[in-house]
Amino acid sequence: MRLALVMMGGGARAAYQAGALRALAELAEAADPARRAMPFTIVCGTSAGAINATSIASHADHFAQGAARLVDVWSNITPDQVYRTDWPGIAAAGARWLGALAFGWATFGLMARRMPRTLLDNTPLEHLIARTLSFHRIEQMLDERRLHALAVTALSYSSGRHLTFYQASEPIHAWRRAQRTARMVALTPAHLLASASIPYVFPAVRLELDGHHEYFGDGSIRQIAPLSPAIHFGAQRIVVIGAAVPTPEVPAACPDIDVYPTLAQIGQQVLASVFLDSLGADMERLDHINRVVLQLPHAVEPESGWRHVDVLAIAPSERIELIAARHLLRLPASVRMLLGAVGGNRASGAAFASYLLFEQTFTRELIELGYRDTLAQRDLLLIWLQSSTGAPEAHPEARRG
Q1: Catalytic residue among 47, 156, 197, 220, which?
Q2: Most C-beta atoms within 10 A of its C-beta, which of 68, 154, 268, 352?
Q3: Which residues form a coiled coil (predicted)?
């Protein structure tokens, strides 16, 4: 039984995934004490989940060690490891936006030789990826057949296409759907930066594609089928680790419900549509396909191109924005000032701030939450882990929307 691991986006919320992976490593050891290798031979990630996916995939030969390293990174992360928090950096970004608004976008762009592009400078994230991830080990894990495929997704701002960039242990036919396509490439830090470039917050990344260059941003944008890459790679069971529950949440009580929403409140709804809305719909689609497959005669099923795929979602049992509200004051003063301009330094804007809250007290709380929520599904996960084949094998492309 081939298992896949899919990790969704969510900025700093992705610390939750590190705790879930630590619990999964413990359960894998309980399922087979003699085995150190990761039971998930297919790993897919989007946005910050792409970085986590690449990290854990590079330790496919020692799952527990890979999970421990990821927990260590998230437990000790600080905002200045992800984006510039110094006053000159924050002030320069603010000045460019104010200048563009005051003098006109085109006029100011000519005056300053550069139009404002994003809210924050994530150059430190590039250094963090280079320091903590080994792309050589990805190649090694694939060559040793400990890993079947690793995929990260990004959206082309230039063409509007949603791209899945992947490496595999054997040639896999790249698929193409409406506004969705795949490319087999040698993954680089630039692919991860592109996938994790939150719209408006972090800059787009220039990548070469089909002999020309395009600008790419966060893979969660327009990601209507986040489970699709894992299914194309031949997954029979998929464990998804998200940053929120895969079904719509009931809004938290707000004492100022009649007050006009701040930009942060509006922004958090926009980001929620980017990061959180697609998984639930895709799981419903897959459930429908599974029901259809159950009705097919066994002789017809292989010819249909459809097959049954089980999905288990690991999602926060607590509202992350309520957790974030307790840690807002831990952010550097420069970042609080920037967020304060849009209402993101108040409890009502905590959901927006949570995507940028790379503070140890917050991430450690999310790690523990992810650990507990995963162990809460211990019984089913143990059954899945015990049935894992581990070693990759050839599998035809699954035809799936």
Answers
A1: 47
A2: 154
A3: none
